[in-house]
Design brief:
By secondary structure, the protein is of the alpha/beta class. It is built from eleven helices and eight strands. The chain has one domain: Aldolase class I (TIM Barrel). It is globular, with a radius of gyration of 17 Å. Bound molecules: pyridoxine-5'-phosphate.
Length: 237
């Protein structure tokens, strides 16, 4: 089974916004990512729209030929935009409004009622739902009770450990096995890069998709977008 690469374009949107013009053009970059081998495009509009904007959801929906994944906290505004655009997948993250980047998954026990409602609403429009999760078994069990199709494991802690320390990876392997038993599809993301992706993908046999933004954009400065996407794809196949 090949793991799909969804390219997160938030950093590209950040560069665009820094000059107040439509350059780089997110649509063109998304189309080029697909041409260069990306299996999907992800954006994560935050309430302040400092990188991806809500309008980008609609613009990308009309051109993305692979899979469009929209991440975000399920505020009413976010949900209305997603329900209107109907992307292939919506990944729900529990971020507080001012957070710099997502750094933890859902507490699916505390927020069970909210998630049940939101998952139902999104699925009714034919949108596949994924919940951003830490590799914690009790919370993953409760994630299954929300009706979600998939979970996305937060890989930030895995990415931050020193070489040779496999405790985090073991937690992810256990979480991946439980997800399979529960019938949940498995995605992963955050801080994945060319140094840690291969090991992760080899250890997690049921990994359907990774979404990668920061490192992929940084690597593109050195290697170019086409080479970089191919380098990431090689780690996944
Ligand atoms: N998954 C989620 C839920 C995220 O919020 C982000 C960052 O926007 C990513 C994956 C991608 O992380 P990175 O930019 O570190 O590759």
């Amino acid at each position: 089974m090949k793991t799909k690469l969804s390219v997160n374009l938030n950093k590209v949107a950040l560069i665009r916004n820094s000059r107040g013009q439509n350059f780089p053009n997110l649509i063109n970059v998304a189309q080029d990512c697909e041409k260069f081998g990306a299996d999907g495009i992800t954006i994560h509009p935050r309430p302040d729209q400092r990188h991806a904007r809500y309008q980008d959801i609609h613009d990308l929906k009309s051109v993305v030929n692979t899979e469009l994944n929209i991440e975000g906290y399920p505020s009413r505004k976010f949900l209305d935009e997603v329900l209107l655009a109907r992307p292939h997948q919506c990944t729900l993250v529990p971020d507080a409004p001012g957070v710099l980047t997502s750094n933890s998954g859902w507490d699916t026990i505390t927020h069970q009622a909210l998630l049940v409602d939101v998952v139902k609403e999104l699925k009714a429009e034919g949108i596949r739902v994924s919940l951003f999760m830490n590799p914690e078994l009790d919370l993953i069990k409760a994630a299954a009770d929300t009706g979600t199709d998939r979970i996305e494991l937060y890989t930030g802690k895995y990415a931050s450990v020193k070489d040779g320390d496999n405790k985090q990876l073991t937690k992810h392997v256990e979480a991946s096995k439980l997800s399979a038993q529960l019938g949940l599809g498995l995605n992963a993301g955050h801080d994945l890069n060319l140094n840690n992706l291969l090991k992760y993908n080899l250890a997690i046999s049921n990994l359907l998709e990774v979404s990668i933004g920061h490192s992929l954009v940084v690597d593109s400065i050195y290697y170019g977008l086409q080479n970089t996407i191919q380098l990431y794809k090689r780690q996944l196949n």
